[in-house]
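Postdoc handover notes: sequence design on the structure in folder B. Input tokens:
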């Protein structure tokens, strides 16, 4: 009886527990059925999500165009590869395979297209299968595949291989204006975001609004017949149209690339602007980068707008503009050049050449005399008046150009020495874009134009203009008559026999401008010393009567020879870009035929008659030096099909070479001669040859020893003077002199 009682008790307890659990579960089921939610989760919505596929429709980022509608930055489709390795994804494997069934075939087929190792692809697939993964990805080699790669893989019809389309920012011209256009890339949300340049500045305009599409599917991820599809269309970003001209920009990029390869400077900036409107037609820097393949980027910044420098003697254009406007500039008045000293400074301001004597102010400007500018500011105009003009030219403020990270220079004007040196661009700093803005007043009848890069913004769908930029006059620091006189002075710098800008003469157009050679601050104090430790620059414009284009170029610390002027790389950029751009814009040449510097394609002269070739070359205007008494030409310093100017000195070595008289030859020509006849040469000094150890007419034997002494040219024979500005305390260094004898 006791046993039966205990059994009955246990049975009742178990029955009670069962009933309680049953009632609890039933109650829970009834509650869930009644409310349709579990722990706050709506089961209907959860079920809908489980049986609904939803894909994002990415919006295209707006295109960046040049002024003529050429694409400079756009989105292109790339593809990320993945493979489904779960067998359950193939419910009817006999009819259709939806997963990777044959790992070996898949790996061997993908490897050559992806550029990866077959074993690595196989390992990825096998690891996914062994770990019961539904799908696997292939790392770096499977991301951002091109359309060509996707098509090649699609043609293989491999089961289980799929793609996710992803946009990528693409720059069709590579390094082209990269620090202006900028750079954009994917962020953590797979949205392309602008990081630098126009891409960053106008990111809100360029970024579109993504859309989406959703539909219902079965458990095998197959679309239902009644899929209840919902689509929200994407909205592409706005298009940005720049003032940049792709053709002119290409001229500029090519020239900068050549200078980088030949001279290896630390930095280059170059800008082409329409001075009548302020539109930037081309702008570039070196070092730069290719936004399609970044590698190690040396310089993200656009130095034209972000890096102030001492402008050097290019500032003298604004000094005489102020003097003319004030009515105190008398170009034919004379002054004593060489040194300028006042009681308020401890050391005199000096010209780079102290042997000019008494010269006119016009000649002083052409020679880039620091003393001339100092006298104009201190003795005639007054420092306070000149300071007002520095403000009028907006050297004390940013230009407001529509590019990010603009900086402004600093006007040092607290002490007399600073007030004097500012007149020739020492101490005070400006950015290249500040100087260009100020110079538009000279080229544009006194009206100073605000520079800009963005022409207009359009809606991607309708083409409607969302924003439009127009030329804006920023001020009138000088009058139209003053601007005309300054243009004439700038032309004389290029055309005068004593001008520092003779190297910058164009073939078909009259050009004007101002050279500059600014010293570089030494972190340890003072300025760097040495032949190449300068920023060589040129502010130039053409055609000079009514400038259509203006350029400002700076080349910092180029690798130049001791006898080579710093203007060599700068002038190459100016001539190449300005001449080509003016012709491209169909600007009519304004030079008389007899004024034009002609070019000549050098013929094949080796083995030809000396008499015949000399006659032909002389008729073409070339300066010909025949070396030796032979009848046939054995060698020359110019090779076949080289394009040279008719000012070039051509050395023709005959089959019986003898020593020529090299007096007054440049170091370049002497070295060319020694190389042609294989002489062992030693040189002393710089400038032009004054002494040779081997007598004229002596028979030249291979590896003979030759000594040649050089001396700087005197005032009458001086060619292409290149100024070296005085330092902040008024001290000057030796003159930079261009001893090249041609402009090619």
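Designed sequence:
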């Amino acid at each position: 009886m006791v046993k039966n009682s205990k059994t009955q008790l246990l049975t009742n307890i178990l029955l009670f527990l069962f009933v309680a659990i049953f009632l609890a579960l039933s109650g829970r089921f009834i509650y869930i059925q009644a409310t349709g939610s579990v722990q706050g989760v709506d089961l209907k919505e959860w079920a809908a999500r489980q049986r609904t596929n939803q894909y994002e429709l990415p919006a295209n980022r707006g295109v960046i165009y040049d002024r003529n509608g050429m694409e400079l930055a756009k989105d292109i489709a790339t593809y990320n590869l993945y493979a489904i390795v779960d067998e359950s994804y193939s419910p009817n494997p006999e009819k259709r395979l939806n997963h990777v069934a044959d790992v070996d075939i898949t790996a061997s087929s993908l490897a050559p297209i992806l550029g990866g190792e077959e074993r690595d692809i196989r390992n990825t697939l096998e690891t996914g299968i062994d770990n019961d993964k539904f799908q696997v990805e292939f790392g770096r080699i499977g991301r951002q595949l091109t359309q060509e790669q996707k098509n090649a893989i699609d043609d293989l019809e491999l089961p289980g291989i799929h793609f996710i389309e992803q946009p990528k920012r693409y720059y069709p011209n590579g390094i082209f204006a990269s620090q202006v256009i900028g750079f954009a890339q994917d962020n953590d949300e797979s949205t392309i975001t602008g990081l630098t340049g126009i891409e960053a500045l106008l990111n809100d305009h360029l970024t579109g609004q993504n859309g989406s599409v959703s539909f219902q599917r079965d458990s095998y991820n197959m679309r239902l017949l009644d899929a209840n599809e919902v689509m929200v269309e994407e909205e592409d970003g706005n298009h940005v149209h720049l003032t940049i001209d792709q053709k002119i920009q290409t001229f500029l990029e090519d020239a900068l690339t050549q200078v980088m390869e030949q001279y290896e400077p630390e930095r280059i900036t170059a800008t082409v602007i329409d001075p009548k409107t302020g539109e930037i037609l081309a702008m570039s820097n070196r070092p730069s980068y290719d936004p399609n393949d970044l590698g190690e980027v040396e310089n993200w910044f656009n130095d034209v707008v972000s890096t102030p420098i001492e402008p050097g003697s290019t500032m003298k254009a604004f000094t005489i503009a102020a003097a003319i406007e004030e009515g105190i500039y008398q170009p034919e008045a004379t002054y004593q050049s060489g040194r300028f000293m006042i009681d308020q400074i401890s050391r005199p301001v000096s010209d780079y050449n102290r042997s000019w004597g008494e010269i006119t102010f016009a000649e002083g400007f052409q020679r880039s005399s620091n003393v001339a500018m100092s006298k104009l500011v201190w003795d005639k105009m007054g420092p306070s008046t000149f300071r007002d003009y520095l403000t009028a030219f907006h050297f004390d403020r940013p230009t407001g150009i529509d590019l990010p990270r603009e900086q402004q220079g600093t006007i040092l004007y607290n002490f007399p020495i600073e007030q004097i040196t500012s007149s020739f661009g020492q101490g005070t700093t400006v950015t290249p874009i500040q100087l260009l803005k100020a110079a538009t007043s000279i080229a544009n009848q006194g009206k100073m134009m605000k520079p800009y890069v963005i022409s207009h913004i359009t809606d991607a769908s309708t083409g409607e203009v969302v924003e439009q930029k127009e030329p804006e006059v920023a001020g009138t620091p000088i009058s139209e008559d003053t601007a005309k006189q300054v243009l004439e002075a700038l032309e004389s710098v290029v055309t005068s026999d004593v001008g520092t800008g003779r190297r910058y003469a164009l073939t078909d157009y009259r050009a004007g401008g101002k050279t500059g050679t600014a010293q570089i601050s030494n972190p340890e104090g003072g300025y760097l010393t040495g032949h190449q430790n300068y920023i060589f620059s040129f502010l130039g414009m053409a055609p000079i009567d009514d400038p259509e284009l203006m350029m400002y170029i700076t080349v910092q610390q180029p690798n130049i020879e001791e006898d080579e002027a710093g203007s060599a790389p700068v002038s190459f950029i100016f001539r190449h870009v300005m001449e080509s751009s003016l012709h491209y814009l169909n600007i009519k040449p304004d030079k008389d035929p007899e004024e034009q510097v002609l070019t000549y394609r050098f013929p094949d002269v080796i083995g030809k008659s000396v008499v015949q070739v000399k006659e032909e070359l002389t008729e073409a205007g070339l300066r010909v030096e025949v070396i030796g008494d032979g009848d046939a030409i054995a060698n020359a310093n110019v090779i076949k099909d080289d394009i040279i100017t008719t000012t070039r000195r051509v050395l023709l070595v005959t089959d019986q070479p003898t020593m020529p008289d090299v007096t007054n030859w440049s170091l370049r020509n002497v070295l060319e001669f020694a190389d042609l006849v294989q002489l062992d040469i030693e040189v002393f000094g710089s400038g032009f040859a004054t002494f040779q150890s081997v007598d004229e007419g002596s028979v030249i034997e291979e590896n003979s020893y030759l000594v040649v002494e050089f001396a700087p040219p005197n005032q009458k024979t001086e060619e292409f003077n290149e100024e070296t500005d005085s330092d902040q305390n008024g001290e000057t260094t030796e003159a930079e002199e261009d001893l090249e004898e041609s402009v090619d």
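Context for whoever picks this up: Residues 714-744 have pLDDT under 50 and may be disordered. Don't rerun without checking with the PI first.
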